[in-house]
Write a structure and sequence with these properties.
- The chain is α/β, with parallel strands linked by helices.
- The protein has one domain: P-loop containing nucleotide triphosphate hydrolases (Rossmann fold, 3-Layer(aba) Sandwich).
- The chain is about 35% helix and about 20% strand.
- It is built from seven helices and nine strands.
- Helix 4 (about 105-115) runs parallel beside helix 6 (about 145-155).
Length: about 220
């Protein structure tokens, strides 16, 4: 996938309310290009969660059109969505969606055992870099949110992708870990020639964005 295009997209909730939006994303035409880096800055209530949900295909309550290359994503089959989420799109959920009853390592292996994308050594190096090497065997439910956030981030790297979408990826991280996360992300994106899309309602990932858009 080389491009994600939004054409006059507007969540139904906004069209039904008649709310006037000052947005560079909604109700406009924009193209997000593979290999470029984007920050989507959002205020609370402007549809950040909706934006992420639409691009990942688990909500479609919007008017307008979203296309992956030239294909309207509302026409995609379940099988095609499965392929896209395995090889073209990676998402770091704001709510993380980890299994609390499993260890940090087990959570990551659920994905990596399917993709076979990262070696054990590469994953261990990510744990080391992010300061949670001693937490590989810890139950996720007993870890802090910031530690869980780092586990979910590592998991998001365990697949090939054309675009990676990160929803509030550093909301609970200190400055040092935020910088390390940014470095790992850029290394992986450059290796894959991938695009990065980061959303934020405040504290955001510090990388050199090609474009900053107001949601």
């Amino acid at each position: 996938m080389k491009q994600i295009v939004l054409k006059q997209v507007l969540p139904h909730v906004f069209s039904e309310s008649g709310e006037v939006l000052d947005s560079e994303v909604w109700k406009t035409d924009i193209a997000l290009e593979k290999g470029k880096y984007y920050l989507i800055e959002a205020a609370s209530g402007t549809g950040k969660s909706s934006f992420c949900s639409y691009l990942y295909g688990y909500r479609n309550d919007y008017s307008g059109k979203i296309c992956f290359d030239d294909q309207d994503i509302k026409s995609l089959s379940v099988t095609r969505w499965t392929e896209l989420r395995s090889y073209s799109l990676s998402l770091l959920f704001q709510e993380l969606r980890l299994f609390s009853e499993l260890t940090a390592w087990e959570n990551i292996m659920i994905k990596n055992n399917l993709t076979r994308y990262k070696s054990d050594e590469e994953i261990k190096a990510c744990f080391e870099a992010l300061g949670i090497a001693g937490k590989k065997g810890a139950l996720v439910g007993k870890m802090s949110f910031g530690q869980q956030q780092r586990v979910a981030f590592i998991r998001s790297l365990c697949q090939p992708f054309d675009f990676i979408l990160l929803d509030e990826p550093v909301s609970h991280l200190d400055e040092n870990n935020s910088h390390i996360l940014a470095s790992l992300l850029l290394e992986e994106a450059r290796k894959q020639g991938a695009g990065i899309i980061v959303t934020s309602i405040g504290k955001h990932l510090e990388i050199n964005y090609d474009k900053i858009l107001k949601l």
